[in-house]
Specification:
By secondary structure, this protein is an alpha+beta fold. It is about 30% helix and about 20% strand. It is globular and about 65 Å long. Bound molecules: adenosine-5'-diphosphate.
């Protein structure tokens, strides 16, 4: 019997060669863990970005369960030059989900590697495999009744610390910068060698999760937002549960307050008075928790500000809404509450010291998904231009975003967020992915926005699979050449995730 021809092939690999590779891969992981039927691949194929799905179709998916299997997979893929796209929990929502940066790659799904190898309540550290989710880690900590908190990104319980940290994702507590709180990696290199970073290469090491830098060059950064290796273990620092906390809501009743708000936040963040990121949600973004756009606006154009604001105020939402948390003992919190209250009131903010935000206090939630309901249809592309944490920059970014989005009929849904000295102006481009016209409009708006931000000196810290190569070009030829040199040295056949972060052999 002739087997049906495979629908999608890796670039440069013929159908018989791919079939031979698949046969060997089945021996490595077991036949049930090599998926090539379109139906079996459906869970991997949902693209939320404003790009044609077909350009990113994988040739298959393979599920490895151990480091040895990953090494076996790499040996076969090197032999037949089959490109492999590693994913951990594979839910990189708004950046490409599980899909590869170019068509025809074989997805290496590591969700079966889901062991929590260690949680140390004394040092407040953990060691996890790629498939571990935040929910799983949360449950483990709760079962053992350990005094540890997690910091998680918008995807909350569904996603995992390893994949998110490799993307340099962020959360909402003092441990928001995930890569800054990672300590030690195990990486399988393209040739199958296993590298442990930091103190992990030392025989009998007793400090792998305690000290990050080890000896010699600090290598961990090379394995974030890159395609230089497959990370199979990651050490994490966890936040000791604070004695108490108090979440504060600050609201500004006019749009022009954005500059003042940022100028007020920055010194409080730099002094450490506020220890977690300060996200200023605009009215439209906050309103997505309560209302759909269609209830306010049936036109093809953007929803007028006045309409948004009057709907928002029915739910206690103002043009800018900031919440942050003070953590510590009651004695520590009291003076800090005085300091922040005075500072925000002086800047024209209204202060409510009895607020609640689950993400800031270790409560996993799916709240971030409300924004998809604004228009329905599942389209989402994130765009977060980075600037210094200066009010004037935040305002300029807002004006750029609002102008371009409005011209294409989209609402400005945003949360300019001060992390420290940096501000990431988080913008959600939501659209109906099933409507080809809306998708095309979103694609055009995305490209125009990105161009405008870049022309104003604002880069991006992360982007979707449809914009990785374009963004890499913006960072200049030397930057690209250095990455290519590393790529050639570590993965001479170029089989690992070609196109990730715009890096190709
Ligand atoms: P999450 O589900 O937490 O959002 P993903 O598993 O989707 O995270 O991973 C995000 C991205 O990080 C992937 O698209 C891939 O480029 C990269 N990545 C994920 N896991 C690995 C890994 N184990 N090794 C190397 N790169 C990885």
């Amino acid at each position: 019997m002739m087997a049906a021809p495979l629908a999608v092939l890796p670039a440069g690999v013929s159908s018989p060669v791919f079939a031979r590779a698949l046969a060997q891969l089945r021996k490595v992981v077991g036949p049930e863990y090599v998926l090539v039927d379109r139906e079996a691949l459906l869970p991997y194929e949902k693209l939320m970005l404003a790009a044609p799905q077909d350009e990113y179709a994988p040739s298959g998916a393979i599920l490895a369960a151990t480091v040895e299997q990953v090494q076996g997979v790499l040996a076969v893929c090197n032999k037949y030059r089959v490109p492999l796209w590693p994913i951990s929990t594979g839910r990189n929502f708004g950046y490409g989900s599980a899909l590869p940066a170019t068509r025809g790659q074989l997805i290496l799904d590591l969700k079966r590697m889901d062991r929590i190898l260690d949680v140390d309540p004394v040092l407040s550290t953990a060691l996890v495999e790629p498939g571990v989710t935040y929910q799983q880690l949360h449950d483990h900590i709760a079962e053992r009744n350990l005094p540890l908190w997690l910091d998680f990104p918008g995807g909350g319980p569904l996603v995992g610390p390893l994949g998110n940290t490799l993307e340099r994702g962020t959360g909402s507590t003092p441990y928001a910068d995930h890569f800054a709180h990672a300590c030690g990696m195990e990486v399988v290199l393209a040739d199958g060698r296993v590298l442990r970073t930091g103190m992990g290469s030392l025989p009998g090491s007793r400090s792998w999760q305690a000290y990050r830098y080890g000896y010699g060059p600090y290598l961990d950064g090379l394995f974030t937002q890159s395609n230089f290796g497959i990370v199979t273990k990651l050490g994490l620092w966890l936040m000791p549960s604070p004695a108490s906390y108090r979440t504060i809501l600050v609201q500004y009743p006019e749009d022009a307050a954005l500059e003042r708000a940022v100028e007020t936040i920055r010194p409080l963040r730099l002094a450490g008075t506020i220890a977690n990121p300060c996200a200023l949600s605009n009215a439209a973004l906050a309103l997505t928790a309560y209302t759909r756009r269609a209830e306010l606006n049936q036109s093809g154009g953007p929803t007028p500000d006045a309409v948004i604001l009057s709907a928002a105020r029915q739910h206690g939402i103002e043009p800018w809404n900031l919440s942050f948390t003070l953590y510590g003992t009651a004695e520590q919190i009291a003076p800090n509450l005085d300091i922040v209250t005075r500072a925000f009131e002086m800047s024209g903010g209204r202060v409510d010291p009895d607020h609640h935000d689950p993400s800031q206090v270790n409560e996993l939630n799916l709240d971030a998904f409300h924004l998809l309901d604004w228009v329905g249809g599942g389209g989402l592309a994130w765009l977060a231009p980075v600037s210094a944490a200066l009010g004037a920059d935040a305002a300029r970014q807002r004006d750029i975003a609002r102008g371009i989005l409005g011209r294409h009929g989209f609402d400005y849904l945003a949360a300019p967020t001060v992390y420290g000295r940096d501000l990431h102006h988080l913008i959600a481009l939501v659209f109906d992915h099933g409507d080809p016209q809306a998708l095309q409009r979103a694609r055009t708006a995305f490209r125009e926005l990105a161009r405008a931000f870049l022309d104003n000196g604002y880069g991006f810290a992360r982007t979707g699979i449809d914009y990785m190569s374009a963004l890499a070009r913006e960072y200049g030829e030397t930057h690209r050449e250095v990455n290519r040199t590393l790529k050639r040295a570590l993965d001479p056949n170029g089989i690992l995730a070609p196109g990730k972060a715009g890096i190709r052999p």
